[in-house]
Amino acid sequence: MVTTESIRRSLEAGLDCRHVEVSGDGQHFEALIVSPAFEGKSRVARHQLVYAALGERMREEIHALSMNTLTPAEWAARQAQQ
Q1: What is the pLDDT of residue 31?
Q2: Which of the four, 15, 49, 59, 61, has the lowest number of CB atoms within 10 Å?
Q3: Which residue, among 11, 13, 22, 7, has the nearest Cα to 46 in the 3D structure?
Q4: Mean pLDDT, the chain, as a whole number?
Q5: Rg of the Cα atoms in the chain
Q6: Helix 43-54 and helix 4-14: axis angle, to 10°?
Q7: H helices of the chain, where?
Q8: C-alpha to C-alpha distances, 61 to 3, 38, 55, nearest whole angstrom
Q9: How many CA atoms lie within 13 A of 18 on its CB side?
Q10: Nearest 5 degrees, angle CA 69-CA 71-CA 57?
Q11: Among 80, 75, 78, which Cα is nearest to 36's?
Q12: CA–CA separation, 43 vs 26, rounded Å?
């Protein structure tokens, strides 16, 4: 069964994450992922890293995942604005 917690654990296991938040209703999920691996990468390349971290789960279990992928610097800047 897909849960927000299981997605979070998969992301943390497959990607060097500084911060991860996952929400959803069991069918549709949203994730905020902060990782230094995103440095210098396009949005598409960042999403590909997330898909790789989730592996087969993305094809077999997770039907919809909306992502916000940030570097640690982008996350810090966002936090400073709040």
Answers
A1: 98
A2: 59
A3: 11
A4: 94
A5: 12
A6: 110
A7: 4-14, 43-54, 56-60, 72-81
A8: 10, 24, 10
A9: 14
A10: 35
A11: 75
A12: 25
